[in-house]
Amino acid sequence: MLALVTGGSGSGKSAWAEDLAQFLCPGSKTYLATMRPGGQEAQARIQRHRALRAGKGFQTAECPDGFARLRLPPGETVLLEDLSNLAANRRFSPAPPDDCAGVLLEELDGLAARCTHLIVVSNEIFSDGVAYDPDTTDYLTLLGELNCALARRAELVMEVVCGLPLVLKGALPWARPL
Q1: Domain annotation covers residue 176
Q2: What range defines the domain where residue 100 resides?
């Protein structure tokens, strides 16, 4: 299963994604961390996420630049946290690919083909109405393209708002009390 979980900052999207991974695979699973660990804010966020998933059976792989060297057990359940960081890392790298969206989608398709379940977390950052500089606008366009393409491919798409899942495609495979 391919699932896309979006939401704003602090929406609860990570918790829902982790719960989905737990439901689909109560045993060992892989957490792909994409945030570059620079600065105090990033370190605090990384520590918070590690604490939240402690004891849930996740093996963490640091993948801020992609999955080329990633080794996965056959049939693995994978939680990618998150697409927004991965896209920013690639888009703002010293030598970004000409077709950044195409390259990332190809990598994500390859990753999905190696997994039994792939849960991708992404950010909903498109509705603030602010006019941005061209580089930021290019990044927002890239992330929007990636989110739309993954939503078309996914069996489950949900946006988490105020801690509540809005299922946009498919159905949650369990009934969790809200």
Answers
A1: no
A2: 2-169
Specify if 178 maps to a domain. no
Q: What is the pLDDT along the chain (178 residues), one digit of tens a residue?
A: 999 999 998 899 999 999 999 999 988 899 999 988 778 887 887 888 888 888 889 999 999 999 888 999 889 999 999 999 999 999 999 999 999 999 999 999 999 999 999 999 999 988 777 888 999 999 999 999 999 999 999 999 999 999 999 999 999 988 665 5
Nearest Cα residue to 56 out of 26, 96, 86:
26
3-class DSSP state for residue 106?
helix
Q: What is the pTM of this model?
A: 0.92
Alpha-carbon dihedral angle through residues 47, 53, 54, 55, given to the nearest 10 degrees: 180
Residue type, 45: R
